[in-house]
Batch of 2 targets.
Target 1
Amino acid sequence: RPITYSGADDDGRRQNRRKLSMPFVSRIRRQTDYNVFPSSIPIVIDNGASYFRIGWAGETEPRVVFRNIVQRPRHKATGETVTIVGDQDPALMKYFDCTRSGPRSAFDSNVVYQFELMEYILDFAFDRLGANGSVIDHPILITECVCNPVQSRSKMAELLFETYGVPAVAFGVDAAFSYKYNQLHGLCKKDGIVVCPGFTTTHAIPFVDGEPVYKGSCRTNIGGYHVTDYLKQLLSLKYPFHSSRFTWEKAEDLKLEHGYIAPDYASEVRKFQEGTKEAEEKTRYWQLPWIPPPVEVPPSEEEIARKAAIREKQGQRLREMAEAKRSSKINEMENELRSLRFLVNQLDQVEEDDIPSFLSDTGYASRQELESTVSKVTQSLRKARGEPKEEPDESEENTDSLNNEKYPLMNVPDNMLTPEQLKDKRRQIFLKTTTEGRLRARQKRNEEELEKERRIQLEEERRRENPEFYLEEMRAQYKEVLERVDQKKRLKTNGSNTNGNQKTGGVGRGERLSAAQRERMRLLTTAAFDRGKGEDTFGSRDEDWQLYKLMSKDHDEDDEQPDSDEAELARLSSRLQEIDPTFVMKAEEESNQTSGEAQRVRPLTEEDYKIVIGVERFRCPEILFHPNLVGIEQVGLDEMGGASIRRLPHDDGELEERLTSSILMTGGCSLTPGMKERLESGMRMIRPCGSTIHVVRAMDPELDAWRGASAFAADLNFLRNAFTKVDYYGKGEDWLRRYQIRYNNL
């Protein structure tokens, strides 16, 4: 399991981590029953970009193996930053906020460059190994990549010597240790080539007389990480609605379980394109969890009757409430009318001069206003009771008499009025005109409502006579009006310059403007030239400023008025929604099509949750031989062997035969099925006819590098290949540049 450290300041960080991790390590030691090793036994570390392996020299298995990653999330409860090394435990990670801190590696490609993260990893590894003292009093053999930069090597030596106080350190290449280990077991010879497809890079190193010749080595920046990432991308593009399920870890499992190398990539692709039986047998399926959607059962007749009864009951309640409200309103209006009539009767007994003082407390200014109010309340009461309206002649006579009493100056000539009376006359004319306009508008609305009710009644009668014919007719009308509205929108947007159904080319901006907008554009373009080429005197006259009124956007009211076709379209749409449950408005269809979510024509079925892994099985590992499939313009595995042979300083044909007769594959990617056969056939294509080509896979491509390093460190001459603190402080970085171990001791 991963170990967590409490967040601490940079000062004393190492001491705090050691103290906090001691109880955890002591618990591990009780569970695993570690042997007590003397301080002279070296510690062997295989520092790979994917996995970190550490153990004691002379053993055949590493004691601790974990992923070489570090993550520093915050605890959700306390907000404290903690450090998690190795694989992530889902049960542990639910207590941390990982949104701002993802897994990080100390490697850039295959070179260590983040030594702060490397320190966390070494702390964790030493604690799990049981070396929990203040000083690591054991020599260390640690692996590195081919031709590791001296800066990375010196920083690693500085970390081991000054932070952990190790007595001696030795550096070796992981692929070389794997080759020497398999040479001890007779799988390869002294002269040969080791091809190591790793996590982020692939190396090819030639061996001559048991020693690696680094001048002939070559590297390609592609490895198992790129294969997994390519598989993840292909599945996410193939099944976009399941992209959240294709995590990097799941893609890694699918690659290890189903991936293989095709003997001939082109012919293998052709089989899957033709859908042959062999391709069907090689296809794998991954069924995701799927729950069938609930089946909608149509309501029974009893349920329909029950809902209808409920609706009828609710409607009855609403009608009763409306009737009670209407009765209450009629009572209020009757009381008001009785009080007004009583006031009129009282007014008849008052003298003319005392009328203003009598009405001052009632809120009415004159007798005419009081009688007008009585007339209005009477009309409202008759309307509320549902009684017929008064005859038009009587209402017109009453209206004329009321107008004469309310506006006495209307019919008086102007020459007979004083200036004050002329002002009152103009005010009376304005009030009368406004009142008549409101009455006409109200009458027009009433007529429109009556016409609308009459039309609705006629349509309802037609629908009852022949429902199917009425529905088809409504659909045809809707389609016709919709086409007219769309055509108007297209003309307004793109102009009218068309040729049949095809547009004649680009449409100018002027053709997309309305009439008022085009008029404003004309005024703007011609205003500067109306004065001629003389002095610019625009604005010197008052009429010049009328131009701004003409250019105002307020004159677009006519263009912005709702079109009659649009109103008719809205009416037809609402009517179709009432009588046709399958009707869908065009606006809703367009909104569904333009929404951010992918429009699903049908609900997802069980087949949609079945992930088909066919051509992806061999297409992803193929990038090891053709990196240009993912945009990396470098050579593949088969060409790397030929490139290593050409780089050797020897010009000996027999040596080339010996090298190609002992090609060892090691590294995690070499476990992919079909790798050995494909590499052998690729080498035959670049070598002369009749050349001896023999490719073997390491006994354990993942652990042979550590086992070879363990056997090398267990040799009594190991310390001769290591350098101590004295060498580090005395010889410095230049000596590290020339440092190289001798593998023939193994």
Target 2
Amino acid sequence: MHMKTVLILLVLALATIFALVCVLLTRGRAPGPCQHQPPEQEDPDDVQSLVFADLTPEELAQVVRYLRGNLGVQLVDASRAKPSDNCIASVDVQVPAKAEVLRFLDGGGPRPPREALAVLYFGNQPEPNVTEYVVGPLPTPAYHRDVTVQKYGGKVPYHRRPVTGKEYADINTLIQRELRKAPHFLTACCESDGTDLAILTTAPRGFKSGDRATWFVLFHTVAGTGYYLSPVGLEVLVDHGALHISRWQLRKVFYNGQYFASMGDLEDAFVSNLLEVVRITKPQAEAVLGSMKPRRPPGSPGPLQYEPQGPRYSIRDNRVTFQGWSITFGMNPNTGPRLFDIRFRGERIVYELSLQEALALYGSNCPGGMSTRYFDGSFGIGRFAYELVRGLDCPYTATYVERHYLAESETPKTNQNSLCIFEHDAALPLRRHFSDSHSYSVYYGGLRKNMLVIRAVSTLINYDYIWDFMFHGSGAVEVRVHATGYISSSFLHGQGTDYGNRVGPHTLGTMHLHHIHYKVDLDVDGQLNSLETQDMEYELVKDPWSMQHTIKRPYLRRERLEREGQAAFPLNTPMPRYLSFAGSKPNKWGHPRSYRVQIVSFAGEHLPASSPMERSISWGRYQLAVTRRKEEEPTSTSVYNQNDPWTPTVVFADFIDNETITNEDLVAWITVGFLHVPHAEDVPNTVTVGNGVGFFLRPYNYFDEDPSVDSPDSVYFSSEQDAGACGATPLACLPPAACAPRLPPFRYGGFLNL
């Protein structure tokens, strides 16, 4: 063999041996952890955001102790209280007046006293009522003052109070007692004795102020799955308005299109063969409609988002900062997520951004479904924001924050990990351009669309609402809500499909609308703003270079709205495509520094004004209404509206009294929503795809150029550069593949507080 050939073979053999040794040495070695680089730290003394902070468990407990010792009345724990008792219904933070807060935040003024708002049900009084007290100062309360008349113009009638868990339990006991009066019917229709049937509330509860009579819908239950898709056709009307439970009564029974005075009458009709019974087999766990249990074994895990050098945002107490953004966050037990003092590059853009209400309004040919208008704030949007599932509800490596509340108990509760914060890569450029102009230059420039997300998920009986607040590098704020969870359903009978689609053997997916209301207190370049609109029109002009021809030329029509009446835009009607909150100062190019409100919604039709309960949800008349901010108009609705929508405690329509809105402190009230006609693909759950709505707050001439040009994530390289060089682009400086994220173990404790 030729010597040259031998040498070549020897070199190849040595190279092969070396490669095998490397593989053997590294096989089984765990990847090294990614080196975390902490974000730039804030001023450790900057705790101004605590002026908005939710109450701590210790503060909640202090308020309860103070009320017990200083009201001079006997209080029963709300978890055990009967309607004829006095109890503490809830305690939340009392956010100070805006003027006081701004003096503290911006003017070097004193910190406002920290106070709580306590709601009490006084059933053991000559005139039962709901009373609200402001209690302070915290952490050691020394005073309380009744603010009920100041807020509502009078005492809140007792019948307006939300239904407590104890009241529902007592109603359930009554219904179970009544069901025992129809044993033969229940066996025949449902293979049940009644004790295994789920009972679902509806609302509101009657036809006029003072009523407290509720239709309850009965369903088959199967452990481990939602009962909402298994109605048995039986519904009962319970009058629970009396202070004494012994006087509560079952007023009416509905079954399969027929009404009866009592369960005894229903049983008699069955025994006498005067009743058409639809015999429903008790569902089995392996075949129940709507089961969410996996049908296939787990596959390989999907993509996992992680942060190579740790989070690039920073959280201190109730404040998060991220690439020029600063946001103070919290959770109202009733109305849900609330954000304050939203700043970008040190300038306040929004003073308050808060959820106000979530309405679900149903149609059906069954009494429970046709009468249902859920005002979810009265049930507790924030209170029922439970623990989030790591890696599904939010990215695995998100930061999870606990929230505390006190409602229907004198013991504070904690929903652990119920709010998540994370940086999200949208896998989409925020902006980009590829230049192929060979005559000038060839280059690429762009920026990834990364944003900070604050998220919570509320489970309100059958529905789950995903609340997102997103903050972009362009200075834009995006607010979005997705609906998922189980649809509510009625028993399919008669002309049921006039009100939805059949989704099971005896199940009608009932049509409904979701309308969501938000409060946005914008402070654009200062507290005083005006409202400006811009839209397009066409004008017919002679062609300047060929006068015998004409051209339809679009032009910009600008208008400043002067009064609230002009700024109240009815739902589902055209509104100006550009609507902006404008400050008094111009940008570099002479235009008012502004933020634009851009709504993305597919709302259904608002309840007609002829309905006697329409005024209780009159906020739904408008896709956008802009009013002057008033301390006495803090919210667009009230938890008391649900159980007395005929004489609502708060009427949003009354906020619009045609005051001037030029150079004033203004609030945008925004309604988003969609009509949902359930269909087969809503089983087992409604999917989030296509079921998301929201709005944007976008800078409009607020800056002199897109602020994202200052992002350290910007990418630029030309044809003359080595794009793979680390100095040319940060994408070439990613950590080696051997870097592994530090993933915490998967745990879940969301069932603990149920």
